[in-house]
Amino acid sequence: IRQLTIKKANITTRNFPKTVAEIRKKLSIAEGGERYLFFIRDLNENLMILECTKVA
Question: Please, which of 7, 18, 52, 53 could form a disulfide with 22 given CB 3.0 to 4.6 Å?
Fold first, then answer.
């Protein structure tokens, strides 16, 4: 994530060990913008980040 240099994003967590506030503080990402980041844990217990943008 740090390599992407994301300054603003909408963040959501699902079954992830850190809260949105902890993620924002650690990565210095402000609220808002065109990006949506979903921090999730999949069925195999792997932690993942999905980066999305709104289509319409």
Answer: 18
> What span, in angstroms and rounded, lies between the C-alpha atoms of 2 and 19?
18
pLDDT digits (tens, 9 = 90+) for 40-54: 999 999 999 999 998
Estimate to the nearest angstrom the gap between the alpha carbon of 39 and the chain centroid: 5
- At 12 the three-state DSSP class reads strand
Q: What domain range includes position 19?
A: 2-53
Quickly count helices (H) and strands (E) in the chain: 1, 3
27, burial (CB in 10 Å: exposed 0-12, middle 13-18, buried 19+): middle
C-alpha 35/C-alpha 44 separation (Å) is 26
